[in-house]
Design brief:
Number of helices of chain B: 22
Oligomer: heterodimer
Strand order of the largest sheet of chain A: 1-2
Shape of chain A: globular
Structural class of chain A: mainly alpha
Helix content of chain B: over 70%
Distance between the termini of chain A: 68 Å
Strand content of chain B: under 5%
Largest interface: A-B, 62 and 74 residues
């Protein structure tokens, strides 16, 4: 069994992808079959993942890989493969479990959608692609699945294609992450050039096993790979796609922004961590310093913006960006296990929050503005209870919630970073902000009285939606068992150590700091928003700051007026040049050519000039012949040949 | 030298000529006949492929005028294959009023491809270029009811003949300086000492004709008009077969004939030679093609500018040089040709159904013809280089070959530029897909709904091509191994 599963770990991504193809084959009207196949596929993937999880428990530092030659090209053959290790196994189980909850939830949430079966096909495809990223044992194979994740997210975010904003958001997500992938691809080429293989593990010959050979280029490679990670994980300055991606159906937001796509970037850094830490002095390398600072900036900026958002999903989106920043910091300071633990815990409680928000939106008939909600505590009790669990976990309340423990680990790792203590203090500020904006959201949505007429008809969601919420809430709490410092099972599992029980470690002085900060955040939120009306209290007190944050620090606008404007300008200029400018240039050069020709008349050299002369003379004749055609620019086209040739000659002459 | 031997080695070419004449005769007796000439042409091409496969491994006639080698035979078969898939597109194109004549031109153009690919001697290459060019000019201008077609043909002709003049001048200079037109002997001559200035002039001028054929900027100006104005099957053939053959020959000329004049295109290490020239053309093509494509609202024009950009990427392999680089170029150009024929097949269907090929004509294609829309998505995403489609692996080979060569990451600048270009390109390919899948078609006027009859043949062709792109994406080794094995 153990052998079989380690050799066939590819089944995990294959199952949902096959399910997706089957559903597409069924056609539009087979709704029941579509959901059946999708959920069965996900359950099968969960079972296989769990089977794969078991052998990784038995021995420490378990790592099994199965490589094969994909194709040969010239003298070299490109090999790919699949790997099973604690990192992959833990991710697989989390993704399939969270995925399954989301699939079931979608049954209720998408029940009225006319493209119901297509939705499940995309969802399955997405899940399969993400699982492929996790089990790939080759950077190239990982990249293939990585791009498939991008494609699937494009399809899902733009699922409601009749909304122009959804189509725009989908395109933005796809293209912004591709900016990062450009760097990633270059990093892959560089790594391939340097190490001659793209396999991670190959019995001592993999690229992660010989990072010392990379030498100084490891910094460049690591930073290029980080570009890809930053794009997918919504790190500053490539975070802009993530909040817009909320245009997709809410289960999609839960899948993309909690457990899968955004986690891929963090996972990637963890996967190729040896490249980042190659040649580390005291655990610090220049590439890791970049990771830390990008993470800090992202984490703090997104937390600030989240305070002033009014769309229930956008708040969660910025909170995701902020938490991803936190994970990156953790990886950067050397706390790989802490970062991944936070990633796993975050997967559960963020999916819970998104699905809870989905339940609220569903109950309120697609109202998303929190200022128009209120008093839902009594109308939607299950949603409220589970949402509160998610909120407390995200805020990092210690002891009972998984998020509290993992956040503690991250802060702990950051406080020991030898390079600087600034990130640690900034993260503490982030903790306060997180508690503040989550309290604000909960106060607005569930407490007080109804602010607009819309929630008169509010109702609790059907059990097909609430049961997944309850399961995720139980996970968000129950996971704590494996996370306490007294029995750090998950950390030991990821690091390949033996876990020891030591009850004395349960209470650490640093937990007091967190307790105070989280308490401050929640208290502040409670005090500020206890009687909040439709106008945000913060807006009344500091309107300028609020406006700045509400408009997302104008980063989108800055991009629009710089990079995008530049691209549009370049495209217009090139197009215009292609149509008109040659005309002028050709005339000028032709004129010069003629003068030149006249000057050197009789001289026996003159290849260039003769060429230009002949063309311009010929061109004029042709031009007359062509004058009846409606766009008679052929003479210019011909002149361009001479012009291009002249440019090539000059280039050649300049080289010699 | 026995003429029997020539007949044996030149059998594929002879068969293509005979079939062209047969098709022409059928066309003369019945100038509306569509099915019969199509079947004869397709069948004849298949026979030609079969005879090519049975050619001996190595042979050379008339000092390199006709060379049989694994590489030449392979690309003869690929060119014949590209002509083969163009036949159903041509047969179903109703605007071509004399299908027999058209197919005869197609076959004569194919003959040009075969001569071009099968020769390693400059004069014969030039004849191949001209034969191909003349057929293509006629094919571009073939739709006598459409003034745009006439314009496309005339522009293509004028531009092409001017470029040919430069090339011929270049060849004559090379001949004058080296005393030979055989590629193998030119190498020996070039290797004997430093490159003379006049020789350099000859080399650069020879390259221009090929830059024109592959539509590298700034010798690309004919492409948008020809791609847009010519009948759709002609555009498909110009964009595929002609380009593949041009890259094969260009590769052989620079890597075999002008090998000693390689130079260096590395950043800060530039040395005079053809590789910095090609690198400059590649860089300019990538930038210009991608940026101008962003501004297009006609799918065929967009494909033309994207062709300019792709010519730039493909040149990267030649700049990198060596067996790796040449194989990468050949692999990429083959994949690209398959993709473009498919894309033009979809364009042809849309044009027959809606009467145009602007963006708005593609609106609602997904609901009208989901299969064709799905295939178009595969073609566009493959062109954008999205894994696991064939275009991605083509780019991977190309860029990794360029990255490895040049020493000390010399070609990094070109790789970065190409990556940037392919990133920009995603934007306009997605625009096409957005129109197809998202936009609603303008309200159909009564009586405008054209019959869908006669679309089966092109649709089947498109689906097969899309399947090929998918399969070559998942298993790129199949084609890659064959190509690398044949490259000397």
């Amino acid at each position: 069994m153990t052998d079989w599963i380690t050799r066939n770990v590819w089944l995990v991504p294959a199952t949902p992808i096959v399910a997706a193809l089957l559903i597409l084959g069924f056609g539009k009207h087979a709704r029941r079959a579509a959901t059946g196949v999708a959920i069965l596929g996900q359950i099968a993937a969960l079972i296989v993942s769990t089977c794969a999880f078991v052998p990784t428990l038995h021995s420490h530092e378990f790592r099994a890989f199965e490589n094969f030659t994909w194709f040969t090209f010239g003298e070299q053959s490109l090999r790919i493969g699949f790997v099973l290790d604690p990192l992959a196994a833990a991710m697989m189980v989390m993704i399939t479990l969270v995925g399954l909850c989301i699939f079931v939830f979608s049954l209720g949430y998408m029940a009225d959608d006319k493209n119901f079966s297509r939705f499940f096909a995309y969802l399955s495809f997405f899940s399969g692609a993400m699982l492929g990223v996790v089990v790939a044992n080759s950077l190239l194979l990982l990249f293939v699945f990585w791009e498939l994740v991008g494609l699937a997210s494009y399809l899902l975010i733009g699922f409601w294609i009749e909304r122009p904003s959804a189509a725009a958001a989908a395109k933005k997500a796809f293209i912004t992450t591709r900016i990062g992938d450009m760097g990633f691809f270059l990093g892959i080429l560089w790594l391939y050039h340097q190490s001659g293989t793209l396999l991670f593990y190959d019995g001592g010959h993999g690229c992660l096993e010989n990072v010392a050979l990379l030498g100084a280029s490891s910094t460049f490679i690591a930073l290029l790979i980080f570009c890809g990670a930053a794009g997918k994980s919504g790190q500053f300055p490539l975070h802009v796609w993530l909040p817009d991606a909320m245009e997709g159906p809410t289960p999609v937001s839960a899948l993309i922004h909690a457990a899968t796509m955004v986690a891929a970037g963090v996972f990637l850094v963890a996967r190729v961590y040896p490249i980042f830490s190659a040649g580390a002095v005291n655990g610090v390398t220049s590439s890791l310093i970049v990771v830390v600072w990008i993470g800090v900036v992202t984490g703090l900026m997104a937390a600030l913006i989240a305070v002033a958002q009014s769309d229930i999903k956008r708040i969660l989106a910025y909170s995701t960006v902020s938490q991803l920043g936190l994970m990156m910091v953790s990886l950067g300071v050397g706390g790989v296990a802490a970062g991944i633990m936070h990633l796993l815990a975050h997967g559960f409680f963020k999916a819970l929050l998104f699905l809870g928000a989905g339940s609220v939106i569903h109950g309120l008939h697609h109202e998303q503005d929190i200022r128009k909600m209120g008093g839902l505590r009594k109308l939607m009790p299950v949603t409220f209870a589970t949402y509160a669990v998610g909120m407390l976990a995200l805020s990092g309340v210690p002891f009972f919630f998984s998020g509290g423990w993992t956040k503690e680990e991250v802060l702990h790792a950051t406080s020991h970073w030898p390079s600087s203590h600034v990130p640690y203090f900034l993260l503490l500020l982030g903790v306060v902000l997180t508690a503040l904006y989550m309290t604000r959201q909960v106060m607005y949505v569930f407490f007080g009285s109804s602010r607009a007429g819309s929630d008169h008809h509010a109702h609790e969601s059907p059990s097909v939606m609430t049961v997944p919420l309850i399961i995720l809430a139980l996970c968000a709490i129950g996971l704590s068992i494996f996370l306490t410092p007294a029995w750090p099972w998950l950390e030991s599992y990821l690091l390949g150590h033996e876990a020891h029980i030591d009850a004395h470690l349960l209470l650490q002085p640093m937990i007091l700091v967190s307790l105070v900060l989280v308490g401050a955040g929640i208290g502040l939120g409670f005090w500020l928003y206890r009687r909040a009306g439709e106008v945000d209290p913060l807006q009344q007190k500091v309107p300028a700051v609020y406006r700045f944050l509400e408009n997302k620090m104008w980063i989108d606008e800055i991009y629009e007026h710089t990079i995008l404007a530049l691209a549009a300008f370049a495209s217009r200029v090139s197009d215009w040049m292609d149509r008109y400018i040659w005309d002028g240039l050709v005339r000028v050069i032709g004129g010069i050519g003629q003068i030149f020709g006249a000057l050197t008349k009789g001289a026996d050299e003159g290849v260039i000039n003769a060429g230009v002369d002949e063309t311009t003379v010929g061109a004029r004749g042709v031009g007359r012949a062509m004058s009846r055609l409606h766009s008679g620019q052929i003479q210019i086209y011909l002149g361009v040949i001479a012009l291009g040739m002249l440019a090539l000659f000059l280039f050649y002459a300049w080289l010699t | 030298m026995s003429y029997l031997n020539l007949l044996k080695l030149g059998a594929p070419e002879a068969i293509v000529v005979l079939i062209a004449l047969a098709v022409l005769t059928i066309g003369l007796t019945n100038d509306r006949a569509r099915g019969l000439p199509g079947v004869v042409a397709a069948f004849g091409i298949l026979i030609a492929i079969w005879t090519t496969a049975r050619l001996p491994q190595q042979a050379s006639l008339f000092g390199g005028m006709l060379v049989i080698s694994p590489l030449n035979s392979l690309f003869k078969m690929i060119c014949l294959g590209l002509a083969f898939v163009t036949v159903p597109l041509a047969v179903s194109e109703k605007s071509l009023r004399n299908p027999g004549e058209y197919l005869a031109m197609l076959l004569l153009g194919t003959l040009g491809l075969l001569l071009l690919v099968g020769s390693e001697e400059l004069l014969m290459i030039f004849i191949g270029l001209e034969l191909l060019g003349l057929s293509l000019y006629v094919m571009a201008a073939f739709d006598k009811t459409d003034v745009r077609s006439a314009e496309a043909g005339l522009k293509y002709y004028l531009f092409g003949s001017t470029a040919s003049a430069f090339t011929l001048f270049g060849i004559s200079l090379v001949y004058g300086m080296s005393g030979t037109t055989s590629l193998a002997l030119i190498t020996l001559k070039l290797g004997m000492g430093p490159i003379q200035p006049l020789m350099a002039v000859g080399i650069v001028m020879t390259l221009i004709g090929f830059a024109f054929k592959i539509a590298a900027a700034p010798f690309h100006l004919w492409a948008p008009d020809a791609y847009q104005g010519a009948p759709v099957p002609s555009s498909a053939f110009i964009a595929s077969g002609s380009k593949v053959a041009a890259f094969v020959v260009l590769g052989k000329i620079v890597l075999i004939g002008f090998a000693p004049a390689h130079g260096n295109a590395g950043w800060h290490m530039m040395q005079p030679g053809w590789s910095p020239i090609l690198a400059a053309l590649a860089a300019f093509s990538i930038l210009l093609g991608n940026f101008v494509a962003l501004a297009q609202t006609n799918v065929r024009r967009l494909l033309a500018y994207s062709a300019v950009a792709h010519a730039g990427y493909t040149l990267l392999g030649l700049v990198a040089g060596g067996r790796d680089g040449f194989s990468a170029t050949l692999f990429y150009t083959t994949i690209y040709a398959i993709t473009l024929i498919g894309a033009f097949g979809v364009v042809g269907m849309v044009k027959r159904e809606t009467g145009g090929d602007d963006f708005q004509n593609f609106a609602g294609l997904a609901s009208r013809r989901p299969l064709a829309a799905g295939c178009m998505a595969i073609f566009m995403l493959s062109l954008a280089g999205l894994p696991p489609l064939a275009g991605f692996f083509g780019k991977f080979y190309l860029f990794s070959a360029a990255f490895r060569s040049g020493g000390n990451h010399g070609l990094l600048w070109l790789v970065v530029l190409a990556l940037f270009g392919s990133f920009v390109s995603l934007y306009y390919y997605l625009s096409v897909l957005k129109v197809i899948f998202v936009d609603q078609p303008p309200a159909a006027e009564p009586g405008q709904g054209r019959t869908a009859a006669g679309q089966f043949l092109p649709l089947a062709t498109i689906v097969i091509l899309a399947a090929a792109i998918l399969i070559l994406g998942v298993l790129p080794g199949t084609l890659a191994a064959v190509i690398t094995k044949s490259v000397p």
